[in-house]
Amino acid sequence: MSTGSEETLAVRISRVLADRIVSGEIGPGERLRQDHIAEEFGASHVPVREAFRRLEAQGLAISEPRRGVRVAAFDLPEVKEVAEMRAALEELALRHAAPHLTPAILDAAEEATKAGDASRDVRSWEAANRRFHKLILIPCAMPRLLATIDDLHAASARFLFAAWQSNWETRTDHDHRAILAALRKGDVDAACATLARHVRWIGRRPAPASDGKRDAFAIHG
To answer: Which residues form the HTH gntR-type domain (predicted)?
Structure first.
C-alpha cells in the first residue's frame, strides 16, 4: 500500500470513528482496539494508528501508557474550554469573513437557521447549526483557523448529543437572527459580540447514566 493511500484510509477511519464518538455510539472511556478496527476496515495498523492520532488531535481520544487508546471523557471544565476557544476563534474568523459576506451567503445562513428551528431531533439541529456557522465563517479564507474551529464543533456536537440523546426540544435561535441582522447592517462589532456570547452559553440538563441520572452540559450555539 502506498503512503498516499494509507493517508486517505487513515482519514476515512478517523472520520467514521469520530462520527461514532460524537454520536455516543462509542462512549467515554471505551477502548479503541487497534486490531478490531484494522480488521473492520481491511487495513494495516499504520493507517489505524494515524487515525488515532487524528482523533487525539481533535480531543476525541487519549492515549494512555500500557492501556492503549480510549475515547476521551468530558466534564464541565472541558465544555467551558471548548466554548471559550470557539468564541475567540469564531469571532476572529467572522471579523476576517465579514467584508466578503454577500447577500446570497447571508440568505443561505438564514435558511440554515430556519432549518434548525424546524428540526425535530438533535442530529438534524446540529447539522443545521453547524451549516450556519460555516457559511458565515468560511469566507475568512483562513484554512488552519477553520480546521481548528471544525474540530471544536465536533467536540461541541459530542457534548450536545450526550445531553440530548432523547426528548429533543425545538427552539428558535434568536442569536443567529441577531447576528445576521447586524451583518446586513454592516455592524461587524455587534455581530462578533453576539456570536461570542452565543457560543459561550452552556446549557445544563439531567441525562441518563449507568448509575441513574447525571447533569449533562452542552454548548447550544
So the answer is: 7-74
